[in-house]
Amino acid sequence: MQKVTIGKRGETLAREYLQSLGHTILFQNYRKRFGEIDIISLMNETLHCSEVKTWKENNGFHPKECLHETKRLRMRKVYFYLISEYPAFYHLTTSFNLLHITEKKEVRFYSSIF
């Protein structure tokens, strides 16, 4: 199966999972020239900026390892652009998250990982 198709399915599962927790999805694939945030959602006065990784269990390392310093800096830069574009979000608490979608289509949610 193509990587793009797998990624889109993973993002759909992640979006549905967040909605089941009570999140309101504000943006999906919020892109700027310097980076992207896969899902931006709102729940309980917290703005959740989430990276989605659809990952095989036997890859040899954990999806958290993909959130290296460069990726984190890019996500932060996109976040700061977002709040400059939408000043109403400025007062909200922010959480940077990882949603790991397994081969079995299980969702593992890691909140406030950086």
Automatic annotation (TrEMBL):
Among InterPro entries, the record links this protein to: Restrct_endonuc-II-like (IPR011335), tRNA_endonuc-like_dom_sf (IPR011856), UPF0102_YraN-like (IPR003509)
Q: Which residues cross the membrane?
A: none
The terms under GO molecular function for this entry are:
nucleic acid binding
Instruction: Mention any Pfam family matching this sequence.
Output: UPF0102
Q: Which domain of life is it from?
A: Bacteria
Family as reported in the entry's similarity comment:
Belongs to the UPF0102 family.
Q: In its UniProt entry, what is this protein called?
A: YraN family protein
Species assigned in the record? Leptospira kemamanensis
